[in-house]
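Data card: per-record layout.
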Amino acid sequence: MTNKYDIVKKNIRDKIITGEFQQSQKLPTESEMMASFAVSRYTVRRAISDLENENYVYRVQGGGSFVADWQTQKKSDNDPKVIGILSTHVASYIFPAIIDGADQVISENGYSLILANTHNDPERERVALTSLMSQNLAGLIVEPTQSALATPNIDLYQKINQMNIPVIFINATYKNMTNYSVISDDEAAFYRATNYLMTKGHTNIVGVFQVDDRQGVHRLNGYLKSYQDHPAFLTHCVPIMYKSDEISIALNKVTDLLIDDANQRPTAIIAYNDQLAIRIIDLIHDLGLRVPDDVSVIGFDDFQLSKYISPRLTTMTHAKERMGHDAATLLIQKIKHHKISSIVYQSELIERDSVKDIRPS
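The structure for this 361-residue chain is written out next.
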């Protein structure tokens, strides 16, 4: 259970870090904080004492407590040697490889690493950013949360910019922000993947895309562009779009299409990523259908497990460890005030066993 004084301390510190309490602004009185937090005077004084020791506040005898110039004080203590990584996930899917690639560069350059994840939730992102901002960061690597939407945390990113903390984005960027990034050309990858299916005779292709992140929107655009370049097949184009918390709804829509008359059933499904593709393959098997004999499936990311499932998944590559390595390298260069440029990777097709050639003999 969190101590009461920790609650008071965190609340005040977070308001200072996010700019709600400005430098030199007088804090609420002890009596006001006692009433606001329903705590004793001792608890308030202990919280303020800790914040004073950490250079967030200073006290004037008989005049109250005020917000200190905490950013300058932290930087003058010593050169920051901590780099933060904020990701939608940390311990699953492709993210450990990305983090490992970044950590190699970060540790080699004498920095320590602090991790935080958002679970693709803007409220969690806000909490994580506020916590990271208190760490005297040298720099930050960020995978945006729900990047297709305008971030409600723009104020914190603006504050980070004001603090002169360099930021490198991975996988995507926010629309309403200009930063350096390391990303995949998702639209080109899905254009190529959809064209590949068409070269195998598939015209009735279902695309399933998570559209609350920009990767998903770009992948959807690549899929649609392929159909636009094959106008004779446009009526067979069936995109399914979902938000990150609606995956079960998307899978239900896929099920409805698969249980249709065999003559109307899609012959191929292109999935937002390998994680989704694997679930779709399981769903197809549960319906008594076979991959690829009845339905072909293609994914994206070349997830480690993709080569071990049955059938082995045809997919598109994702840079993963290289992305983490390059993002950290750019960040270190930016910390050293070197000129840098964003990086865009081109994905390669990996043909395995989950796509069938259905062209007439």
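Known properties of this structure: The chain has a mean pLDDT of 92. Residues 214-228 form the longest helix (15 residues).

See the next section for split statistics.
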